[in-house]
Automatic annotation (TrEMBL):
This is Phosphoglycerate mutase. The active site is at H8 (tele-phosphohistidine intermediate), E80 (proton donor/acceptor). The lineage of its organism: Bacteria, Pseudomonadati, Pseudomonadota, Gammaproteobacteria, Alteromonadales. Pfam families: His_Phos_1 (PF00300). Substrate binds at R7, H8, G9, Q10, T11, N12, G13, N14, R56. PROSITE patterns: PG_MUTASE. Keywords: Hydrolase. GO terms for cellular component: cytosol. One of its GO terms (molecular function) is fructose-2,6-bisphosphate 2-phosphatase activity. InterPro entries: His_Pase_superF_clade-1 (IPR013078), His_PPase_superfam (IPR029033), PG/BPGM_mutase_AS (IPR001345), Phosphoglycerate_Mutase (IPR051695). GO terms for biological process: negative regulation of glycolytic process; regulation of pentose-phosphate shunt.
Length: 200
């Protein structure tokens, strides 16, 4: 048994380097990636899927849920960091370093607020997993995954750097100690044409 942390498939916002809104859907390529992701889990028993309630994560999880027929629920704590009024704007049009720890996006989450929410996410994940007999899939977003790993998990130095989060990449966490990463940002289920995508 394992906990699988997965990023959503590609969107046009990823492709065009735009801060996305909650209702940003998958691109055609993203839908293809979601199908490839589902196929990668054909031989893995998934008991439960918890998913961010944003459209792009729900669409990514749908083919996997169809194959697995597992329990499925939406969890708002798994949403991407909110950049408030900046959502919908291109990175190139924002005159600020939005990832600076001291930056507070207008009507959005500060880094401190975001980390506090990520800590609540991990508590929820562990509580969900506690009484399960099979594996748990957590479908979420790039910045959430980065902070989950940074704050709560153990990454071997030989693994890829944290900046290398591709769409639909899979991070497998040891289900026994719930800390050790067994596979980090694994996107081998994708072909070379379907690995592009931005951070948020």
């Amino acid at each position: 048994m394992s906990i699988y942390l997965i990023r959503h498939g590609q969107t046009n916002g990823n492709r065009d380097r735009i801060l996305q809104t909650p209702d940003t859907p998958l691109s055609n390529l993203g839908h293809q990636q979601a199908k490839q992701l589902a196929q990668a889990f054909q031989d893995i028993s998934v008991e439960n899927i918890i998913c961010s309630d944003y459209i792009r994560t729900q669409q990514t999880a749908a083919p996997l849920h169809a194959i697995q027929q597992s329990s499925f629920s939406l969890q708002p704590l798994l949403r991407e960091r909110s950049f408030g009024d900046l959502r919908g704007k291109a990175y190139a049009d924002i005159d600020a370093d939005i990832f600076d720890e001291s930056y507070a996006p207008p009507n959005g989450e500060t880094q401190h607020q975001f980390i506090e929410r990520v800590n609540l996410v991990w508590k929820f994940v562990l509580e969900t997993y506690k009484n399960m007999q099979g594996s748990l899939v957590v479908m979420t977003h790039g910045l959430v995954l980065r902070e989950l790993i940074k704050q709560h998990l153990i990454v071997d130095d030989a693994m890829s750097p944290l900046s290398d989060f591709q769409n639909t990449c899979i991070t497998q966490v040891n289900g026994t100690d719930k800390k050790t990463i067994l596979r980090f940002c694994d996107a081998r289920h994708l072909n070379k044409e379907s690995t592009a995508g931005g951070a948020v």
